[in-house]
Write a structure and sequence with these properties.
Blueprint lengths: L8 H7 L6 E6 L5 H12 L2 E10 L6 H9 L3 E6 L3 E6 L2
Parallel strand pairs: 1-2
Antiparallel strand pairs: 2-4, 3-4
Helix pairs in contact: 2-3
Amino acid sequence: MFNFIKMTDTEFMNENGNLKYFNFVHFDGPHMTKDVITESVWFANRSVKGTRFVFDDYPKYDMELIHKVLEKYGFSIIESGRNKICLERTQ
């Protein structure tokens, strides 16, 4: 099932902290590394094996650092392009 929810990132995280897990997350919002890490960790804590994260405009922030953080949750890069990168939770 696909749900499109229009609200800020912070509003979403504050209102949906009790959600169990996500299978796919497209990150297309803040372009500051600290904000992307905050969101990534929030969703990683609600992910399962096979979950995919797609980051838009990833060259604008420190994707290497974000990837290192997400490795601790079992995420690996599976594909990258000029503006988008996809990670999958393999563990």
